[in-house]
Amino acid sequence: EYRGLVKHTGGCHCGAVRFEVWASADLHVFNCNCSICTKKQNRHFIVPASRFKLLKGADNLTTYTFNTHRAQHMFCKTCGVQSFYTPRSNPDGYGIAPHCLDDGTVQTIITEDINGKEWEKAVREHKTIRDMSKP
């Protein structure tokens, strides 16, 4: 267990992929306008890899990459839902889709827009994003 954090559980639509993640009950969610986040409406919060556990469905995930191939966009082969992914900004962590969490553990969601169309500049100028995947 992690002090001050709650265990959230979630997964894809069909239930083939399930995970747990330790994070605050008050989520800091990024709304990115890069090409893929816009198309998928990918809003996400970032956690260290040590606070994420895939419970089932590793064999039901497939991965899409593009451009630098650093971000690992994983989604369910059955229903197509991306519940989490490895962001380019935080390759040592996970971006978790808050709308894929089970009900009951989230108290509030604060959304921050990030200019993914100018990704390098946005990440360079952001004061905390790189630290969000640090334990």
Automatic annotation (TrEMBL):
Residues 8-120 form the CENP-V/GFA domain. This is CENPV protein. Pfam families: GFA (PF04828). Coiled coil: none annotated. Belongs to the Gfa family. It comes from the Eukaryota. Gene3D superfamilies: 2.170.150.70. Keywords: Metal-binding, Zinc. InterPro entries: CENP-V-like, CENP-V/GFA, Mss4-like_sf. One of its GO terms (molecular function) is metal ion binding. PROSITE patterns: CENP_V_GFA.
